[in-house]
């Protein structure tokens, strides 16, 4: 081999070595960047998730499941099984509703009942922390009597009547459930009683009286 050929071979080898070293250096740099960047991205994502969770406002509506029962419907091929859910929906600020729905699964029945309860909301007149006056509500064979109570009494109620009053925002009240023991009838009877309540100011306006004249 001539000297020129030897010099060319040496030059080619040096060029190949340089390209290999440059490639390895580039690969090392890329891997270092990836290793350093991945934790930062994960931390950013975690921070974003935490911020979004903190930024989401809590819903003012609260739900409470009163009853879940199995219902069978007789059809041509036999019996069709489904579930019925009774749910009370309220914001504890004077709005409450009762929802009832059926579905093949329990979760779907509860979701449908919550949607039904939000459609049938009523406004409850609250006088201080109790109701303005005594009232009786009826639904089917169910009958519920509500009486105002003084501060510190609490909610004296049971069954389906208690969650309706709690989610309506009433703190002191006396109740008596009579007739049917069905939770659905008791809940609807309580809603009927709360719907019939009237504030003193509204009654005075309708009669053309002042508050002092009405109370005297």
Share in β-strands: 25-35%
Number of DSSP E strands: 8
Cα shape: globular
CATH fold node name of the largest domain: Ribosomal Protein S5, domain 2
What order do the helices and strands follow? HEEEHEEEEHEHHH
Explained architecture:
- There is one protein chain.
- The protein is built from 6 helices and 8 strands, in the order αβββαββββαβααα.
- The chain is α+β, with helices and mostly antiparallel strands and about 220 residues long.
- It folds into 2 domains: about 1-55; about 60-200, 2-Layer Sandwich (Ribosomal Protein S5, domain 2).
- The strands form 2 sheets. It has a 4-stranded antiparallel beta sheet, sandwiched between helices.
- β1 and β2 form a beta hairpin.
- The mean pLDDT is about 80.
Describe the structure concisely.
With 216 residues, the chain is an alpha+beta fold. The protein contains six helices and eight strands, in the order αβββαββββαβααα.
Q: What tags apply to this protein structure?
A:
alpha+beta, Ribosomal Protein S5, domain 2, 6 helices, 8 strands, about 45% helix, globular
Question: What is the secondary structure topology, with strand pairs?
Answer:
Blueprint: H1 3-55, E1 62-75, E2 78-90, E3 95-103, H2 106-119, E4 122-123, E5 135-139, E6 142-148, E7 155-156, H3 161-168, E8 173-179, H4 183-195, H5 200-207, H6 211-215
Parallel strand pairs: 7-8
Antiparallel strand pairs: 1-2, 2-3, 3-4, 5-6, 6-8
């Amino acid at each position: 081999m001539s000297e020129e050929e030897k010099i060319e071979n040496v030059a080619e080898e040096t060029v190949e070595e340089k390209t290999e070293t440059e490639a390895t250096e580039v690969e090392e740099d890329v891997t270092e960047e990836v290793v350093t960047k991945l934790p930062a991205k994960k931390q950013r994502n975690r921070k974003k998730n935490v911020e979004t969770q903190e930024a989401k406002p809590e819903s003012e509506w609260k739900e409470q499941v009163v009853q879940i029962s199995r219902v069978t419907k007789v059809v041509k091929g036999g019996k069709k099984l489904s579930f019925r859910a009774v749910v009370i929906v309220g914001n504890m600020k004077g709005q409450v509703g009762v929802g009832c729905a059926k579905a093949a699964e329990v979760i779907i029945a509860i979701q449908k009942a919550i949607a039904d309860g939000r459609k049938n909301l009523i406004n409850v007149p609250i006088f201080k922390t109790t109701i303005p006056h005594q009232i009786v509500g009826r639904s089917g064979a169910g009958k519920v009597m509500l009486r105002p109570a003084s501060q510190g009494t609490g909610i004296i109620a049971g069954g389906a009547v208690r969650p309706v009053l709690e989610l309506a925002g009433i703190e002191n009240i006396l109740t008596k459930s009579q007739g049917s023991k069905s939770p659905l009838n008791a809940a609807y009877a309580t809603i009927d009683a709360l719907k019939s309540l009237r504030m003193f100011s509204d009654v005075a306006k309708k009669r053309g009286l002042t508050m002092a004249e009405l109370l005297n």
